[in-house]
Amino acid sequence: MTDMDVRPTDTARADATTGETPGDATAGAAARGEDARCEAGLLGVLADLVGRGLAGAEPGRDQALAVLRSGDDDLLDVLAAAGRLRRHHFGRRVKLNFLVNLKSGLCPEDCSYCSQRLGSQAGILRYSWLRPQEAAASAGAGIAGGARRVCLVASGRGPTDRDVDRVADTIGAIKQAHPEVEVCACLGLLSDGQADRLRSAGADAYNHNLNTSGENYADICSTHTYDDRVRTVDEARGAGLSPCSGIIAGMGESDEDLVDVAFALRALRPDSIPVNFLMPFEGTPLAGEWNLDPRRCLRILAMVRFVNPAAEVRLAGGREIHLGSMQALALSVANSIFLGDYLTSEGQQGHQDLKMIEEAGYTVEGLADAEAAADTARSVTLRHRGVGTELPPNA
Ligand code: SF4
Known about the structure:
Blueprint: H1 22-55, H2 61-68, H3 75-90, E1 93-103, H4 132-144, E2 149-154, H5 161-177, E3 182-186, H6 194-201, E4 205-207, H7 217-220, H8 226-238, E5 242-244, E6 247-249, H9 255-268, E7 272-277, H10 294-307, E8 312-315, H11 319-323, H12 327-330, E9 336-338, H13 350-359, E10 363-364, H14 369-374
Parallel strand pairs: 1-2, 1-9, 1-10, 2-3, 3-4, 4-5, 6-7, 7-8, 8-9
Helix pairs in contact: 1-3, 2-9, 2-10, 3-10, 4-5, 5-6, 9-10
């Protein structure tokens, strides 16, 4: 399969109805024939990707690239195919995750995408470790909103043993109040024995993202390596923690980089894969890097799903600003989202997340339908602006 086989179907759309000459008609017929082959090519690729996904067989790299390079006219076909894998493994459930930023900013590392990095001028909140009860109270708010996993995140290269003790106390406080809820820790690079201690404290999972391809990694960070990250994910798995590792798209990477990192994740076998879309914070080196559009984001999600069919694909940071009104469509591929706010930026209102899930026909994992629907009571807002008022119209 080459890229030529799957280029957008609207190329060279010559047609007799456009008034072409006989010579043009021959060329038009050839073009139509080529279009048909192209369309069949992508549909064939998608059918094969679904078949491989259901059978647990590895897809081809060229197939993954074809998904990324498919045209807007093919987008619904791509989402329908990826959606079959999503529904096979997760039905119509959506898992809600809630972030608690235990320690914000003040990081000595230089990850170029991060608002908490060394030298960041972003106007984010900066604070040192939350006390365990404060963190547990924040987690409780997320759980009350429907979250079934709490992600405890701290800025920094990696925790000291004392930091691990603090986090262990926080995990204990959350588990005591909400034993049914999963706790994931995300504390950076782990030293020997720290994964075991987190597991013993009751952590269920550990997150450490690969973020981008190994080849691209040195371009986004100079203070630690891609291999450091892979090692930490392996250590977490070795300690019995559910590995969580994902990507950030939109940092100027190539299609090949995205495919590389998707396959690297397949090799790493994380249970969950957060797919972040770069939030270009002012005051960071990647400010101004607006490289994504909603259709591109959807194709990236679909590609990740095809390469990792059984993984929890989590629609993560940047979903609101990059997907906009297409967020609900992304649920046909992703089976997990973050509820509410992110580490240093605000997300959609939690009740709007629930409403979006319900309106798109999905159910919140672990939450009774009645509860999920409770906040979505409808009402009509009467107009009090525009004509007939002193206020300007809504335009
Ligand atoms: S190590 Fe974590 S907190 Fe620090 S700059 Fe990198 S991503 Fe940000």
